[in-house]
Design goal:
Rossmann fold, 5 helices, 41% helix, 19% strand, Sig_transdc_resp-reg_receiver, phosphoprotein, CheY-like_superfamily, Two-component system response regulator
Length: 120
C-alpha cells in the first residue's frame, strides 16, 4: 500500500537518495529543506511517516519533531531520524521529542525501507 512520507533534510542529495528509495517502493514523497519548511508542509494532509535529519539550519530535526507533536493531526505520526549523529545522548533527546527510530547515515536503502515498512 502506498504511503505518504515527509522527508526533511537540508542536503538535496540526501533528499534525492531517500526520495528515490521511497518512490521506488511505491510511496509518495513530500520534501522539506529544514524543520521550518517541514512545519509548513504539515497542512492537514495525511502523512504516514516523517524521515528527518537532525542537524539543519533554521530549525533542527529535534525542535521540528517537538513542534510537530503539538499539532493534533500529527501527534501520532511516527518519525524516523536519519542523521550522521550516533551519540546516545542525541538518540535519547530524539526519543524524548517523539522520534520512534534512529538511522545513521550513510544508510543502505534496504535498511531504510525495512524501517519504513515497520513504522509507516
Amino acid at each position: 500500500m502506498s504511503k505518504t512520507l515527509l522527508v526533511v533534510d537540508d542536503s538535496s542529495s540526501v533528499r534525492q537518495v531517500v526520495g528515490m528509495a521511497l518512490r521506488g517502493a511505491g510511496h509518495k514523497v513530500i520534501e522539506a529543506v529544514d524543520g521550518r519548511d517541514a512545519l509548513m508542509k504539515l497542512d492537514g494532509r495525511k502523512i504516514h511517516l516523517v524521515v528527518s535529519d537532525v542537524n539543519m539550519p533554521n530549525m533542527d530535526g529535534i525542535s521540528f519533531v517537538k513542534e510537530m507533536k503539538t499539532k493534533p493531526a500529527y501527534k501520532f505520526t511516527p518519525v524516523l531520524m536519519l542523521t550522521t549523529e550516533s551519540q546516545d545522548a542525541k538518540k535519547v533527546e530524539g526519543k524524548a521529542a517523539g522520534a520512534k527510530a534512529w538511522l545513521v547515515k550513510p544508510f543502505k536503502p534496504d535498511v531504510l525501507l525495512a524501517a519504513v515498512a515497520k513504522l509507516a
